[in-house]
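Thread: Newbie trying to understand structure tokens

Hi all, I'm a second-year student working on a class project, and my supervisor (Dr. K.) asked me to get a predicted structure for one chain before our next meeting. I've only ever worked with sequences, so writing a 3D structure as a token string is new to me. If someone could post the tokens and maybe explain what I'm looking at, I'd be very grateful. Here's the chain:
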Amino acid sequence: MSILFLTLALGSAAPEPREITWPDPTARGGGSTAPETLSERCDGTRSRPLAEATCTRWKIEWSKDGKVWGVTTADSREALVTKRERLLGHARQYARLFELAFDDRWSDPTVPICDTCEQSTPPAVAGTPPPDAVTAALIETRARLVAFEQEVLDLHAPRLREIARLAHDPATARLGKAYAKALELAIVDVVHLALELDNAVVFRAKADVERARKAIEARRTALDRAAAALVAVVAKAAAKAHAGTYDDDAVSGPGAARLMIDISPTKVIATFAQGEASAVWFEGTVQLDGTLAGRTLVAPEGGTLTCSNYSLDCGYVWAPAQLRFEDRTDARGKRHTVELWFEQSKWLHARPFSR
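---
Reply by user tm_fold:
Sure, no problem. This is what the structure looks like when written as tokens:
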């Protein structure tokens, strides 16, 4: 079965993870329906409900067997709740799609906590004296962790369904499972290393900060390699199916336009050629689902071009685009057809090319 068109329905024999039930103040006679929130001071004391205070950040602690193993932080309560739901959603999907028991590390989060302790974040304010070596290392490593967390949650985690689908295809099962495992470990590390850096603020040990920095880079490297290996296999299949030269469906004979598609190794270039003239019509990459997505130059809606060249200098603008393929049968027989689709106020497509 082609990995480009795999549509295997994934069943679930594994137990469904339990839903988290958040404390409700109304159960204690309160009149509010808002979720419970705590505030925490530097000495660890917490008040309920939220005391009037300025939060240096918001956090959720994650525990297993009574021991805190990780922390999730954000600048606002709303951002924190969104991040919490993404983590829990990923854990539920991972368990279901790979027929695993729900990881109980995600089963016991605290309610959102307003952290009022100024020591929770190293200072990095303009006009203050340069930080000492430990503080400088903490600031730099925390920035690395924030960037890594964004990569994990915004780039890799949304691919989970495609990863699972490829993990169920014999041709890509090993690489799919390896990518899924690398992603799961990365998500756990994002949460665990945030706690490690919190502790480093207290212990002031530069070695601890350096160890966390190396762990971030090692996990990023492992995740990127796992992703690249799986995408490369999909791209190889896409190249076999779609790379080559296509003829204009509307005009045939000498001087007719051609579309040449090159995929190497995961980068996609589609070149429009007519006679001796040619121009890059589309540039993009192969996605995990086998689609070829990227961008194309188009004339601006409601705008005017300043010259006849197909270029940014003449007024063309970049638009999101895809190359879409279909097998069609006409008077010439069975043809493999490609259309360039691009987005302006709505999705449109250019004339088809076939081979």
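A couple of things are worth pointing out once you decode it. The longest strand covers residues 317-330. Residues 297 and 317 are 5 Å apart (CA to CA). Feel free to ask follow-ups in this thread.
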